[in-house]
Design brief:
Chain lengths: ~260, ~300
């Protein structure tokens, strides 16, 4: 009896553990499958950006939107204004409630894929981001500041919208595969980014899945950054000593091995 | 080939940075100016955050001025006696200038004052040097006016603590270089630069020092001033990027050596007119930037 109970328990455990992946697969079946390769970008000494591949599957007949978002944090700005004929800083502005980076790639024209309500609901374009932007102080010209924020981010390459970059493949038994070759800007700072794939159908977001992209400093840059932040006196002294040593060292080399045609002075 | 700058947090072309350093180092060796007034804006243009650009610039100036000062020292172009007085005066002026900046910031638009100071100072010095050097070149005279000390009977000659500076071939009261350098130090602190481009003309026109000695002596005092600034920036603001500074230094120290050699091939008047042209160009660029509508009305408050 006891033996039978054990057998039943083990069999039950095996069946339940087999059911877990099935359950996950079921959930994924309703959402676009998503993978980002590589999922971690290492900013080493010779880092110059990266080439990422975002892949997944969606249900047949759906269009795809891939959005990369940076972490939200309040950012401080100076605001310029006219003072007579010249432009000068006339105040400080704090902007929050918006992603530090917003890159949107789609498989087709977004205006044909989603309604305005859907875009606003998931904050999928500049207009939606602008609407949720918090500008302090409130007394500032909100509309101008919001437009200028978007324009500044766009100039830096941190806000971008590209249509037709997501390629849809041939439908298969698992759905329609999609792929996005994403050139990751070397200017993007180290942070945890969210990569979200939206499955769009009939003007609505039918499903969405998010994956994490980690961009981090590694190796020598990581060590130097830590030293500069945590051991400031040592770092300051090292900076001065290295600079002096480099200057005198190069002078020594030039004086010893360079052509000496200065004596005529 | 790109390289990641750990403190700036940006990735940038290695050869671009070395090239920029070499160009500014060349000017440093040629004119004795630290190059901060040129390098910081260039670094900002290539994508380095302004605070990191300014602080790392100070660090690289330590290297460039060490190299340039050593080269000039061997040539007998460094007046250590006068340079020490200038250094003390410059440090006192910088301390006063930092306090002035604090007051200006608390009052409101310090940035406007800084830019206007730049334009006025650069415009005045550049125009004076340009016209004077041009006249001198047209006359066909050699390196400017003959050196002279304060004339006997003049107010400057009556000041106490008269001191002879044989290396520069001048005699002045200790107060003259000290006060002049204090004034330059104040301006340099307000303008956020080493001050070489103000100091060299001051030494030539007001202290009547020979151009080459003024250049060498200026590099000597810049070396110590910028070493202090670098240390303070690293400790208080954590904005010195040593990788960026080293790359700029590689270019600038070599450029400074070449500049020092090139300077020997040019007459004093030619050096002055070249420096005046650069000063005026920077002034015009700043003036135009002040009037033109900016591409964005927002700029990062902390330089990122």
């Amino acid at each position: 009896m006891r033996r039978r109970t054990w057998i039943l328990m083990v069999a039950g455990l095996l069946i339940s553990s087999a059911m877990v992946p099935l359950a996950v697969a079921t959930v994924q079946g309703g959402s676009p499958g998503l993978s980002v390769t590589p999922a971690v970008v290492d900013m080493g000494a010779l880092y110059g950006g990266a080439s990422l591949k975002v892949e997944g599957t969606v249900a047949p007949g759906a269009q795809v939107l891939v959005v990369v978002r940076g972490p939200e944090a309040a950012e401080a700005f100076n605001k310029k204004g006219r003072f007579g004929p010249v432009w000068v800083n006339v105040g400080h502005v704090s902007i929050s409630g918006v992603p530090s980076l917003f890159l949107r790639y789609s498989s087709g024209p977004v205006k044909d894929m989603l309604t305005r309500e859907s875009l606003n609901q998931d904050q999928l374009d500049d207009a939606a981001i602008k609407a949720q932007m918090v500008v302090e102080p409130k007394a500032m010209d909100q509309e101008t500041i919001r437009d200028n924020y978007l324009s500044l981010k766009s100039q830096q390459g941190f806000y971008k919208e590209v249509e037709g970059a997501v390629k849809l493949g041939t439908p298969g038994p698992g759905g329609v595969p999609f792929v996005l070759d994403l050139p990751w800007s070397r200017k993007a700072p180290p942070a945890l980014y969210d990569v979200t794939a939206y499955e769009c159908r009939d003007g609505l977001v039918a499903a969405k899945t998010t994956a994490r992209l980690e961009v981090r400093e590694t190796g020598l840059p990581e060590k130097i950054a830590a030293l500069a932040k945590n051991r400031v006196y040592l770092y300051g002294m090292l900076c001065v000593l290295i600079a002096m040593a480099a200057g005198f060292g190069i002078d020594f080399i030039m004086a010893r091995f360079g052509k000496r045609n200065l004596a005529g002075h | 080939m790109t390289i990641f700058l750990p403190v700036a947090g940006v990735s940038i072309d290695l050869f671009l940075l070395v090239g920029v350093g070499a160009l500014v180092g060349f000017l440093s060796g040629l004119f004795g100016v630290g190059g901060g007034f040129l390098l910081t804006p260039i670094l900002m243009m290539v994508g380095i955050p302004p605070t990191v650009a300014a602080a790392s610039d100070s660090c690289q100036i330590v290297g460039a001025s060490a190299s340039g000062a050593a080269a000039h020292f061997r040539l007998g172009n460094v007046d250590l006696k006068l340079g020490s007085i200038l250094l003390v005066g410059g440090l006192v002026g910088a301390a006063i200038g930092v306090q002035i900046i604090k007051i200006l910031r608390s009052l409101g638009n310090a940035d406007f004052v800084i830019v206007v100071t730049y334009i006025v100072v650069l415009g005045s010095i550049g125009s004076y040097m340009f016209v004077e050097s041009l006249q001198s070149l047209r006359r066909g005279t050699m390196t400017g006016k003959p050196h002279s000390s304060a004339k006997k009977g003049s107010l400057l000659a009556k000041l106490p603590l008269q001191m002879s500076f044989p290396r520069s071939g001048v005699q002045h009261s200790v107060f003259v270089p000290f006060l002049l350098c204090t004034l330059v130090g104040i301006l340099a602190a307000i303008m956020g630069v080493g001050g070489g481009f103000i100091m060299v003309p001051m030494m030539v026109y007001l202290l009547r020092m020979p151009m080459h000695v003024a250049v060498g002596t200026d590099l000597f005092q810049i070396l110590f001033t910028c070493a202090g600034v670098t240390f303070m920036q690293a400790v208080t603001n954590h904005t010195v990027d040593i990788v960026l500074a080293i790359l700029l230094m590689v270019g600038s120290t070599i450029g400074a050596q070449i500049g020092a050699r090139a300077g020997k091939r040019l007459r004093g008047d030619q050096l002055k007119i070249l420096l005046a042209s650069i000063v005026l160009l920077v002034m015009v660029k700043m003036a135009v930037g002040l009037v033109l509508t900016p591409s964005s009305l927002l700029s990062y408050a902390k330089g990122h």
